[in-house]
Amino acid sequence: MRKTIIAAAFAALITQPALAQFSLDPRFTDNDGDLIADIPTNASEWVNPNTLVFAYTPVEDPAVYADVWKPFLDHVASVTGKRVQFFPVNSNAAQIEAMRSGRLHIAGFNTGSNPLAVACAGFRPFAMMAGADGSFGYEMEIITHPTSGITEINDLKGRQLAFTSETSNSGFKAPQALLESNYQLVANRDYQPAFSGSHDNSILGVANRDYDAAAVANSVLNRMLARDVVKSSDYVTVFKSDSFPTTGYGVAHNLHPDLQAKIQEAFFSFDWAGTTLEAEFSQSGEAQFIPITFQRHWSVIRDIDAALGVQYTCR
């Protein structure tokens, strides 16, 4: 079973339980204490759209993933009796705002942005991709190009390190915590941070030698290797973390309760065999959707956020 515990480097930063710091925006309630927004009790607040909008976490080429997700979205349409539309997003912030404003109904939020989506957008995650044996997780890797002269973490001093976005776990929060706690390397003092916008961009940036190094999710790296977007000779790994939970899938809190149940049914009844979803995500070991809870599976991510002093401020 893949590990889902926080690395000792990150654990050393934690001074108080993350649960004490995590809270939902005042527009939501959590009467059952599961840390996610309750479904409204007033039926007049339920939303039951004719077309369901789905968004996958931001990637370099959303058009590719529109095709990847098509058989799954066709299945959701069959189970729910609704039209289902793929909505390409170019940033985590745009994806969260789309759900917060009511334009997004079903989504896969990446590991690091999941807590913000839960707190600010009323996101109710219930599923995650896993291997055929139920194992799950990915690792953060710090990669460099072979001619950079960087062979260990301390060699990052005085160099440029690409992050993805400030809401990303493996693309920013986890590596920043690691570098500061274990190696006393502080951004803008000991190394120059850059923000690429996505894991794809960071990986390509290293492969093309635009960045000295980058912190990325190896699930994305493995899929890019499988598609021959990059080659194993394009990069060298200088650090690999313990495992983290992957993208969390769920719905907007105010969808009609029966519709939420149907959407969950669609996730857990989808047959991956022979589909474009299987072809794409099997490259990083996924073969099915499994049930998860935000309270349990994202505790490690909330701990990292707590250690970094992250505030879930909703505008």
Description:
It is a single chain. The protein is α/β, with parallel strands linked by helices and 315 residues long. The protein has 2 domains: 8-135 and 245-308, D-Maltodextrin-Binding Protein, domain 2; 138-244, Periplasmic binding protein-like II (D-Maltodextrin-Binding Protein, domain 2), CATH 3.40.190.10. 34% of the residues lie in helices and 19% in strands. It has helices at residues 8-11, 62-80, 92-100, 114-121, 169-183, 199-207, 218-226, 257-269, 276-281, 294-297, 299-308; strands spanning 51-55, 83-86, 106-109, 123-130, 138-144, 160-163, 192-195, 213-217, 236-244, 248-252, 288-291. The strands form 2 sheets. Strands 2-1-3-10-4-11 form a 6-stranded mixed sheet, with helices on both faces. It has a 5-stranded mixed sheet with strand order 7-6-8-5-9. α2 packs across α8 (257-269), α3 runs parallel beside α4 and α5 (169-183) crosses α11 (299-308). The longest helix has 19 residues, at 62-80. It starts with 7 loop residues before the first helix and ends in a 7-residue tail after the last helix. InterPro entries: PhnD (IPR005770). This is Phosphate/phosphite/phosphonate ABC transporter substrate-binding protein. Belongs to the phosphate/phosphite/phosphonate binding protein family.
